[in-house]
From TrEMBL:
Xref: InterPro entries: Stress/Tellurium_Resist, TerD
Annotated TerD domain residues: 1-174
UniProt organism field: Streptomyces ardesiacus
Biased composition (Basic and acidic residues): 239-251
Taxonomy of the source species: Bacteria, Bacillati, Actinomycetota, Actinomycetes, Kitasatosporales
Similarity field: Belongs to the CAPAB/TerDEXZ family.
Designated name of the protein: TerD family protein
């Protein structure tokens, strides 16, 4: 599509129309650090929201009626993609337009991002249209497009309009009464940076500040009323009923400052007499003796919790096009298929407004792979019976552009069936996010999620996520050591694909612990496809003997880099700290050493200088008494400091204590906990938006 054009959704559908659509906003960043937040506004006949509740963004991601669901970010071959599901059958009749926008923060503009685009797909995931944006400019908020009614049908318009005053300004223009948290940021000037001389103890509670970029037209920021809420317990307290929670005063206005996210407090001391006492569990694992037992138990446990905890069930199925409605789940259902009935591991059914959405579920545990003929049979059954999807569950991680199972579709059939995949690591991640960071509806739901997590993480469940680097791992390691590999060897590509799966799983694990999105960074140029990128990585592995990846952690400037050197058997995790724009280099060095007071003594610190030439380097243990040793002898301009930790790499291909997968996971978690967390506690908070506006 081109800017300003529009099209009816019915014209894009081969069937009876489109009941739901998945809108994806995507972009790429040359540095790998660029990001944006999506938002949706539901507008009435006057072009304004009916109430503040019609504004959906990171602090209000799901509509109560299921018409809008913000699904969050997913990595792509060229950056990241933010997805939104619209259930068009659930949109209130007095809503005439639904605006899809995104915003950046801390002064960043959309012109700094590459390949800005919006795509639409139907509920099965089939693409309907694409709108690419080439002229975003320096604006900090941007309307990509809008869905709007014309009579009885829905149409999409490619808008491509920018706003200089950020998310709050965009929302205000559409009638949203915004309240930004400026009160807690008033003391931001007092926070130390690398230029400060006196150490400041880290704060015990941190909260992200308003993300609205400043602009000359930015509206005034109202002071926040209440401070951050207390940290969640290990099992979040139940929410009050609607009657009890009814406010005595006018409902609070939406805040574009992000909600505070905290980790749970330490669990209370057990009443057991000694450690040998085992706590009673809802889902026991001790009786599991075979892989068939594990698959049956895992399917039943997961599907039952999905049905009983609506937030969790919706979170897992919304991305697959399921509506927000009453969910029921079933196991071991017999369905006719030729001469021999088939028994999928499970069935998910969601009802809304008299319509049913149905998905067949096929589950594998431990290292068992999905069987193509089995999945093909379920896809054929689903197509004949009018079901919407087949969902596969296993410890494997699907890669972009490389489906785990190739399924052939009969083009003569009118009904389309979508094939989706979930890894057990993704299931555990979503449960962690709800239970430990976002909270759920009541104490019973929280307890069910806690029991599910305990089951998935138990050694005997078989649901541990990606756990084997594959048959090519050992031959490739040996070939690199002996220098007998050649470019184009298919085993190199197998190892690269396994490495990408491992990195995605590490992102899920770390993100679940932190309560933030953690995504692999893609620095690919526009137009490069995933297969070409993996082929280039395989060539570098052959010539350099190294596997490399970068992770972007939401709320943390910079990226965490990890390199596995197969020649030396070493893992390197690193993070670059940019030099301040003002001050003296010696002051920067002293301040950095104080920030790293609790970091490991074997942390390597390297000074980065202009021109890329190597600067001074040394361990933290040696530099603590003499920070001046970090300064270049020739007074070359300092651009930053690189912090690195090294550790031995696991040898075996599996997930055992001495395995490569465990060593990578441990290295990333240790580096974040001991190094990046120290920097986060000491980092200055951004200035209040009113101050930034005054500065401009």
């Amino acid at each position: 599509m081109v800017k300003g054009s529009n099209i009816a959704l019915s014209a894009l559908s081969d069937g009876d129309g489109v009941d739901s659509v998945i809108v994806s906003l995507g972009w790429a960043s040359p540095t790998g650090e660029g990001d944006a937040d999506v938002s949706v506004l539901l507008l009435g006949g006057q072009g304004k929201v009916r109430s503040d509740a019609d504004f959906y963004f990171y602090n209000n991601p799901v509509a109560a009626d299921g018409s809008v669901q913000l699904l969050g970010k997913a990595p792509t071959g060229e950056g990241s993609e933010d997805r939104i599901v619209f259930d068009l059958t659930a949109v209130p009749a007095d809503v005439e337009r639904m605006v899809v926008a995104a915003s950046r923060y801390e002064g960043a503009g959309f012109g700094e991002l590459d390949d800005l685009r919006v795509t639409l797909a139907d509920g099965t995931g089939d693409g309907l249209l694409r709108f690419a944006i080439d002229d975003a400019g320096s604006v900090s908020a941007f309307i990509f497009g809008e869905l709007y009614r014309r009579g009885e049908e829905w149409k999409f318009r490619a808008v491509g309009q920018g706003y200089d005053n950020g998310l709050a300004g965009l929302a205000t223009d559409f009638g949203v009464d915004i309240e930004d948290d400026a009160g807690d940021a008033d003391d931001a000037d007092e926070q130390p940076d690398l230029e400060a001389e006196d150490p400041v103890p880290p704060p015990t509670v941190t909260e992200e500040q308003p993300t609205r970029p400043a602009g000359p037209e930015a509206p005034p920021v109202a002071p926040s009323g209440q401070g951050p809420s207390a940290a969640l317990e290990a099992v979040p307290a139940p929410r009050r009923s609607e009657e009890d929670a009814r406010p005595e005063k006018t409902a609070a206005r939406p805040r574009t400052a992000r909600k505070k996210v905290t980790l749970p407090k330490v669990v209370k001391k057990s009443l057991a007499e000694n450690d040998s006492w085992r706590q009673a569990r809802l889902f026991p694992v001790s009786a599991l003796k075979s892989d068939r037992d594990r698959e049956t138990r895992a399917t039943s446990v997961l599907l039952s919790v999905m049905a009983q905890v609506p937030e969790f069930g919706r979170r897992l199925t919304a991305a697959f096009g399921a509506p927000a409605g009453r969910m029921e789940t079933f196991t071991e259902v017999s369905l006719p298929h030729g001469d021999t009935p088939r028994r999928p591991d499970g069935v998910i059914r969601v009802e809304r407004a008299g319509k049913l959405w149905t998905a067949l579920v096929e589950t594998k545990t431990n290292g068992n792979a999905l069987k193509p003929e089995q999945v093909q049979a379920y896809a054929d059954i689903a197509a004949r019976r009018g079901y919407e999807a087949v969902i596969t569950l296993s410890n494997d991680v699907a890669l972009e552009g490389s489906p785990l199972v190739d399924v052939k579709t009969d083009g003569r059939r009118k009904h389309k069936v979508a094939l989706w995949h979930l890894s057990w690591a993704e299931v555990a991640h979503q449960a962690q996010m709800l239970l430990r960071h976002e909270g759920v509806g009541n104490a019973a739901h929280a307890w069910l999620l806690q029991e599910l997590l305990h089951y998935l993480q138990h050694d005997n469940s078989g649901c541990h996520g990606f756990q084997n680097m594959g048959a090519a791992w050992v031959p490739v390691r040996r070939g690199i050591d002996e220098e007998t590999l050649c470019q184009g060897d298919p085993r190199l590509l197998e190892v690269v694909e396994s490495w990408e799966r491992l990195i995605r799983q590490v992102c899920l694990g770390l993100g679940g612990e932190l309560g933030h999105k953690v995504l692999p960074v893609r620095r690919a140029r526009r137009g490069s496809d995933p297969e070409a990128r993996r082929a280039a990585m395989a060539d570098r592995l052959c010539t350099e003997g190294k596997l490399h990846a970068e992770l972007r952690i939401e709320g943390t400037p910079g990226v965490l880099a990890i390199t596995a050197d197969l020649r030396t058997g070493k893992l390197r995790t690193s993070f670059d700290v940019p030099a301040p724009e003002q001050g003296y280099p010696l002051t920067w060095a002293k301040r950095l050493i104080r920030m790293l007071a609790e970091a490991p003594a074997d942390l390597h610190v390297e000074t980065l200088v202009e021109g890329g030439a190597g600067g001074p380097r040394g361990t933290l243990e040696r530099l603590r008494p003499e920070p001046g040793d970090m300064l270049p002898k020739n007074n070359a301009p300092i651009t930053g400091f690189r912090l690195s930790l090294f550790k031995g790499m696991g040898n075996s291909r599996g997930k055992t204590e001495s395995g490569f997968i465990r060593s990578v996971d441990d290295a990333v978690h240790r580096f974040h906990a001991s190094v990046i967390a120290s920097l986060d506690r000491s980092a200055p908070r951004p200035a209040p938006s009113t101050q930034r506006a005054a500065a401009t």
